[in-house]
Amino acid sequence: MEIRISVRNLVEFVLRGGDIDNRRHVAADVAMQEGGRVHRILQRQMEERPDFDYHSEVALRHEYTTSDYTIIIDGRMDGLLIPFDKEESRPAAADADSPDNPQLITVDEIKGTYRDISKMRAPVLVHQAQAMCYAYIYAAQNQLPAISVRMIYVNFITEALRLFPQTYSFAELSAWFENLIREYRKWADHEYAWRKVRSQSIKELSFPFPYRDGQEELMACAYQSIKDRRKLFIQAPTGTGKTISTLYPAIKAAGEGLVEKIFYLTAKTITRTVADETFQLLRGQGLRFKTVILTARDKICFIGEADCNPAACPYAEGHFDRVNDAMYALLTESDYYDRDSISAYARRFRVCPFELGLDLSLHADAVIGDYNYLFDPRAYLRRYFAEGSRRDFCFLIDEAHNLVERGRDMYSASLRKADILALAKKVRSHAPDIAKELMHLNRVMLALKRETGEFMEKPYLEPLNDALGRLLPVIEKNLEDHASHPWNPALKKDVLYYYFELLHFRGIYEKMDVNYKSYAQTPDTGGFFVKLFCLNPADNLRECMSRGRVAMLFSATLLPMEYYKQLLGAVPGDNEIYARSVFRPDKRGLFIAADVTSKYERRGEGEYMNIARHIREITNSRHGNYLAFFPSHQFMAEVYGRFCEHFHVAGEATLILQDRHMDEAGREAFLRCFSESGANGPWTDPVSEITAAPARTLTDTVNGGLAWPSHSLTDRVNEATNTATAGKDRSLIGFCVLGGIFSEGIDLKHEQLIGAIIVGTGLPQICPEREILRRHFDGQGEDGFDFAYKLPGVGKVFQAAGRVIRSQEDIGIVALLDERFIQAGYRRLFPHEWGHVETVTLDNVARRIERFWDGWL
User: Which of 49, 272, 522, 730 has its CB surrounded by the most CB atoms within 10 Å?
Assistant: First the structure.
């Protein structure tokens, strides 16, 4: 068995100690970019010297063998300086700090910093240890009796050097390295013992269910994709079991050594529950597999607002002195690390829960978290992906249709002139050098506003990028200088926030190519801004997925497949599969209303009334739970008002609504209404968070009657409570927004939801960016309207429709209230399982839906 760890991770893990302190080293991305620059400068200078032989970026690998396993330690040293043979003419070194003419083979370790290096008295412990590891490995492999180590610190701004040379005998290095490995052996022994237990449990694991139609084929395709290192795109209708059908073969592959770690990545918190429950199910079948659910820093932070330094947070003080003990306790006492368990151990050992979760991920077999952890350049897990190496990771990407828009957002960036001026005003008296550079940036923005049109090619942005190159180091230096005596917290927060925004903008500028369009606008809602807009995120997403062995992207609405493959980074040879639906198609009634639409030119009193009446006719055909989806909150308010005023009958239905600013507690309360009024009986605790049943007038409704929560609506809460005694003699109708939090990712089975009513085709609103997308894809020979509007819209419709029919026992209806769905251009996009669709109007919709229910009740 092999246990792999990099030199850097080894020394940082074993030797770390002290505080978390965000007042220092806040610029990981800048330091990485600037560090690469100074590395290249120094390495190039050394390589051009005629008086010694210099090698840059030397890869090393060392095997430390025990009686049971081998630890593979690898890394890349910055430089190796080899003196000429003694018979060659060469002068002696002038002094100890000189980079010239070393007497021994020397390992260089180069570190860039914004610190005043003249005040440094010694190298940083982990930096020196990293160089010593390289020196030991090279000396051992080349049988050297002694070797020199040279720590070189470079100031990013002045490019001044500070050297810390040190010569070691091989005996010294060997004794030091043995002690380092001895400290790590505790963890390696645990890893070895755990892998044996895990592998045996995987070997004995059987699939926990009878196979559904097509499920074996899907799992075989997933396993083959892992073996072949090919991405797999899976269109899997609801009920095909796509989560377990991808996790099970990935776990089996892990047991065979093909997969090092599984990353299950989702767009929304609610969908992570499905993966978590699947792992728990398999544990019930005997699987031993360590899983960690990563929670965002701000959500898990104990002090409410993450300010990670010992002056602000007691859990940051001494964190690194205690975190290894906390982690070892968790690893030896449990296989499952969610928010609650991580928080409990973090409090017990007084460490940061967010950082504890990240550290646990290094020892977990599977990591469950947001897309950001792999794809977002501002938030990806640098401990895995920063160095660009490819490892045997398996990426399982759930609800992958969301990744197109998320990818565009993650790889776009904007800069607003008003924000520059606002920050300059705030920092003028505290950091005049920052204010000076901000005003220079403002002048560059002003020149762009005067001299360029709406769209700009990349060369026009070079002055802007240069201005950022001047500003970012100044901010970094100020943050470093004020680490011990910081600014007031509010100012620091503003500076840090904007600093990272500028950093992101500059990073995206470096990525710009034919898949980007930069534009500038002065909209009515704000001042002048420049945006770097990612039109097609495929290249960026593909690059991220190449960090692992395989990526499987799956969704119930990955249609049309070629559209998603083109935008999600497919390459020739990648696999795709359309999983067959396991549900009887006749259990889903599909209806298209041919006499209503959500088109802008038709919106008005008559259309709102007709849509409200359709909802009345549909929900009156059978009492039960329904969700009605609308193009926007305003459209929902208009229809809701007419429904309440003209069609709602007290005692027949309870109405609840999605608010524009609904928090997590509100979402849970909303869903609880459905889950507790479904197959398990009527809901008995609607709670006061739910705005239930009708506003009394249309004016009140449209002008603010949709407030959530509404604790003053006692009569409505009482009406909702009466459902407990009414049983199935009344309906529950949830009014929601299409594409929102309730149109995907929720699992309401059996009687919890019997119908979805979808108003409109889901087309995004016409806006400058959508028009830019349309023109771009037209220019690529595609149908620009489809790419910018129609396909994203129908994806929302399919997701909303998928809330109905979640199990083989379910029966339900889907009503599409828009005449455009009759058109062939829309019908050709329907999923294969949508074979039979009935067209209805207000004159016959009630009769047709009653006929459907009569066939099953």
Answer: 272
Question: What average pLDDT does the chain have?
Answer: 87
- Residue 555 burial (C-beta neighbours within 10 Å; 0-12, 13-18, 19+): buried
Summarize pLDDT for 16-36 with one digit per residue, the tens.
999 988 766 544 444 555 566
Q: Give the Cα separation of 37 and 741 in Å (integer).
A: 44
Whether 212-289+365-411+537-582 shares its CATH topology with 585-854 is answered yes
DSSP assignments along 243-283, one per residue: HHHHHHHHHHHHHTTS-SEEEEEESSHHHHHHHHHHHHHHH
Q: Provide mean pLDDT across the span 224-235.
A: 97
User: Which CA distances in Å does 248 have to 286, 348, 405?
Assistant: 13, 34, 29
Helix (H/G/I), strand (E/B), else coil: 445: helix
Nearest residue to 414 via CA among 287, 515, 504: 504
pLDDT digits (tens, 9 = 90+) for 576-629: 999 888 888 899 999 999 999 999 999 999 999 999 999 999 999 999 999 999
Q: Parallel, antiparallel, or unpaired for β 529-534 and 413-416?
A: antiparallel
Helix (H) or strand (E) holding 317: none
CATH class of 212-289+365-411+537-582: alpha beta
Q: Enter the CATH code of domain 2-186.
A: 3.90.320.10
Distance in angstroms (rounded) separating the CA atoms of residues 161 and 156: 10
Q: What top-level class would CATH report for the domain 585-854? A: alpha beta
User: What Å distances lie between residue 627 and 269, 759, 815, CA to CA?
Assistant: 21, 11, 11
Q: Give the C-alpha distances (Å, rounded to integers) separating 105 from 122, 123, 139, 142, 801.
A: 22, 20, 9, 11, 69
Please answer whether residues 484 and 422 qualify as being in contact, where contact means their C-beta atoms are separated by less than 8 angstroms. no
Sheet holding 232-235, edge to edge: 336-337, 291-293, 366-370, 261-266, 393-397, 550-555, 232-235, 575-578
Residues 837, 838, 842, 843: what is their CA dihedral angle, to the nearest 10 degrees? 180
In this structure, the number of other CB atoms found within 10 A of the CB of residue 286 comes to: 13
Cα angle vertex 745, ends 235, 625, to 5°?
Answer: 115
Adjacent-strand bridge partners of 554: 234
Domain ranges for the chain, please list them: 2-186, 212-289+365-411+537-582, 297-363, 413-534, 585-854
Q: Report if pTM > 0.85.
A: yes
Return d(Cα 482, Cα 489) in angstroms, integer: 12
